[in-house]
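Data card: per-record layout.
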Amino acid sequence: TTELPRRMTSNMERRTKMYNALLVEPADDVIVVLEALPAGGQAVYRDGDATGNVTALNDIPIYHKIAIHPIKKGSHIIKYGETIGIAIQDIQTGEHVHVQNLDSEREYLP
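The structure for this 110-residue chain is written out next.
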């Protein structure tokens, strides 16, 4: 058999790895799941050249957000590299981030 160069093998492994969640920007506090996850399921995502994973603490509907680290009550929550709202309670790593623990922060222009 022909052996592939190590770098090419690494790139091929990275492309074929199964990710079921998306980290949009490196500064984001949340990932978006690309499939529904049951509580206890693993969300696997690409974080630069590394692979991140988070265990879902709740059932997570498809295309919803999961915290990738603890978020304190009153903190801004970042997605797309931008603030999407404020945590209205402490949020644990792996917890579903949605209307039950996130309040929209809107900019009102005159």
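Known properties of this structure: Strands lie at 21-22, 30-33, 42-47, 50-55, 65-67, 76-79, 82-87, 96-97, 102-103. The longest strand covers residues 42-47.

See the next section for split statistics.
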